[in-house]
Amino acid sequence: MKLCLYDANQPGVVSGDRVYPIGDVLVKNGFLRSGDGMVQIIQRLSAEPDAVQCVEGQLKSGPSLALASVRLRAPVPNPPSLWAAAANYVDHRREMEAKSRHEGRPVPAKDDLMAEFFLKPSSSIIGPGETIILPKISNDVDFECELCAVVGKRGRYVNAANAYDIIFGYTICWDISQRDPWGRGKNNTRNIRKGFDTFTALGPWIVTKDEIDDPQNLAIQVEQNGKPVMNAHTGDMICTLRDHIRFLTSCLTLRPGDLITTGTPAGVRKLSDGDHLKGRISGIGEMELTVDTEK
User: For the chain, which residues make up each domain, given as ranges?
Assistant: First the structure.
């Protein structure tokens, strides 16, 4: 199932080239209250099989819209939290070390690396087809394209073997990063450098976990202005999604709607005014973004 928000943040399910609205039927059948958002939908679909059957009934006989006729939005516009992994691919670590002239640093132990998780603000979230705004203060902003897990159930002290039990599905996260003036070897600046407005792009929808056999077996590809710049694989992560869930829930409670974005492979590139980005993750889909400068 591909769960989306479209137009005025109406919930729907994408099937082929159609979008099936699901908000009204979930309210009518008592699974949602009027005004509930995507976090509540995720919670209900994760906990109540009858809610899933209600949605599946819409796919069989409910009204639909042409996908091309709607504007997709960020599928989780206001997550309770968005945890972002840092430097989680060896090739990206080398890429960043070369740029900062700190080559040869050893890779930390897994828990030490995962202790570098940072939070991204919901105010930075945009959706498919929207525009990344390059701030005036910076001369160096780049993109990172990542697999992002969507939590469906509360979890505390979840072991790695059971980690996927609390996952609802997956989406794409673009972690946009300012490198100048507060990057390149400076500590404790990620929340600001990666938290500017428009610096988190999510989409195009959430693919439920039953459609992804193994999140560690997905291809990531990015084109910048039509040129391939990233061709990677989630199997190359240092810490897997299972590791992430085990570590995070050893420290805190994950809740329905929380997001865990798993780090970028190598291939990040500086962004310029007028750029066009297209990224895809196998099994999930693709989304495009444009780039503009702050006026």
Answer: 2-73, 82-293
Among 170, 208, 196, 175, CA closest to 289: 175
In the 8-state DSSP scheme, what is residue 105?
A: P
Residue owning tokens 């989409």: 203
Residue 23 has which token pair? 């908000």
Backbone angles phi, psi at 237, to 5 degrees: -60, 145
Q: Find the helix or strand (DSSP H, E) in which 209 lies.
A: none
- Measured from the Cβ of residue 50, the count of other Cβ atoms closer than 10 Å reads 10
* Structure confidence at residue 179 (pLDDT): 87
Amino acid in the structure at residue 45: L
Would you say 190 and 86 are in contact if contact means Cβ atoms under 8 Å apart? Answer: yes
The residues, any chain, with a CB within 8 Å of residue 109's CB and separated by 6 or more, are none
Please give the class, per CATH, of domain 82-293. Answer: alpha beta
pLDDT tens-digit readout, 91-146: 877 777 666 655 566 778 999 999 999 999 999 999 999 999 999 999 999 999 99
How many beta carbons lie within 10 A of that of residue 30, not counting itself?
11
Greatest Cα-to-Cα distance within the chain, rounded to the nearest angstrom: 59
Please give the model's pTM, rounded to 2 decimal places.
0.94
Give the model confidence (pLDDT) of 179-191 as tens digits: 887 766 556 789 9
Q: Is the peptide bond before 79 cis (omega within 30 degrees of 0)?
A: no
* Residue from 248, 280, 38 nearest 147 by CA: 280
State the average pLDDT over residues 33-61.
96
Query: Cα separation of 51 and 41, whole Å?
Result: 9
- Residue 16, sorted as left (phi over 0), alpha (psi -120 to 50) or beta, turns out to be left
d(CA 91, CA 34): 47
